[in-house]
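CORE FACILITY INTAKE
Project code: CF-77B
Contact: R.S. (postdoc)
Sample description: multi-component assembly, two entities in total
Requested service: structural model of the whole complex
Turnaround: standard
Below are the sequence entries exactly as provided by the requester. Do not edit them.
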Amino acid sequence: MATKKRKRKELFALGNEAVVEGALLAGCSFFAGYPITPSTEIAEVMSQRLPFVHDGVFIQMEDEIASMGAIIGASLAGRKTMTATSGPGFSLMQENLGYACMTEVPLVLVNVMRGGPSTGMPTSPAQGDVQQARWGCHGDHPIIVLSACNVQECLEMTIVAFNFAEKYRTPVILLLDEITAHTREKISLPFPDELEILARVAPAMPPEWYISYEETMRGVPPLPPLGSGYRFHVTGLTHDKNGFPTSKPDEVKALMYRQFRKIDQFFYDIQLVDEVQCEDAEIVVVAYGCVARSAELAVHMARERGVKAGFLKLKTLFPFPKSALQPLARQCRTIIVPEMNMGQLSREVKRVNNGLAQVQTINRIDGQIITPSEIFKSIMQA
Amino acid sequence: MSKQRELNRFEIRLSGTGGQGILTLGKIMGQVLALDHGFYATQTQSYGPEARGGASRADLVVSSAPISYPKPVSLDLLVALSQEACNLYFCNLKPSGFLLVDTTLVTQTPSNIFWGLPFTSLAKDKIGLPQTMNIICLGALSHFLPFMQFTSVKKALAGVLPAKILAINTKALTLGYSQAKKLYPDASEKWTFSSPMMTESAQ
């Protein structure tokens, strides 16, 4: 069958600009945020683009706390929503992020990691927010954390983030870093009909039969837009299936278990990784974000010297992709985890590894990227 | 995108002080190389928290193959638009690499072998607008780099800059190109295009 070859539109864009392209392709129509380096371009380009999207709304809020509040409200009203922040702004967003977890509101939060803590180094990269993304808001909660390592991936993972948010009715955090966000590269924009864009489950029953937090097969209750005739109550307190506060142990247990189950039982769907030359690898480098690009080159250099090295790139950070790592831990001698913090994801690697292989870390917190030669040296010594 | 030279990680650093338009320069170059000439190109940047002053730099890696590590390892071309940047980054230049300086601002070069043009005074005296300094430099670069065509750069400029400042910038671009051509007619033939990046960083 002869198909007409279409040429994708190409752009030379920043990682941040690619995030916006991805969000718009995924159907985002509401952005509330407060600009902060190095995530500013996301808000900037959103403010230029959203007014031309059907019903698109861009609001610059007074701070990050309000930004989260605004996107939670807009999401409950049926929009696909996003905010972007960095450094201290991410800390401010945690309280309302917890609210979104408890009330199961789909939204995407992009956090471009910069040197910290506090104001830290606004223009330097770091990967210090990995555990904060998982456990930043209080209480036991499931959450999805994704990452991207190059500009094309920024676009793709933003679309994935929106799809996961809608499919699992949960906040999704996309963790970038200053280098990924501020690298310009050529990207090609996919055509809208090439993409699978998911929408949240709408109730199949008439409004009078609708029970807002009812147990379902997937554990994901349908979410109608507020104002569409379906009435429901939203609270940050533990709630029963009708959405009203409760502290009865059996009802609380049912709620919390369902929230964990809706993510846990779809591990296979959520855990995204890329394996490069891992089939016969004796040394595996596990990396994510900008460091993944250094690792890729380092592994390539080691292979040229006949060392059996492999590379596992994590696109999903949480839930931690244990089913990808475990077989590699059984097979290889050494796992090397380079990251730009004092060992936040290597904890997870060590937990899953559970003594199978030797785990080595390369840590750097001086605002500089870990270079390919640093990783290469570790591979050769391992 | 007709026939093009094979490049294996050609690494360029544009460096100077904040406010000189270095990031804009890097953005335009990357755009021309990636979109018009069909290379793989990554442009990364490094700048301080200040709006003006302070060190600023843009790094470009250009290659015919996909680029893994986006930052330069050893430079093929260093463009230094301040004395400080010249002193700081000269050691990152590979032995066969070249140095291009603004002779108005860089008075002491670490080596006798360099290309120099007075970008800042050209912008002030010939164009009458100091801000066009980066575009004069871009014009000169389109002469020095044989894989970046002047005509493509000129075309790209129209897409990047607002209409009201396009005319003066096109003039600046042409000035830079002709000045570079006059002073260094055979510069673009001096490149060796060896990129022993693998062997160097592995030592």
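Facility notes:
- Chain A has 13 helices and 15 strands.
- Residues 9-194 of chain A form a domain with the Rossmann fold fold (CATH 3.40.50.970).
Invoice: internal transfer
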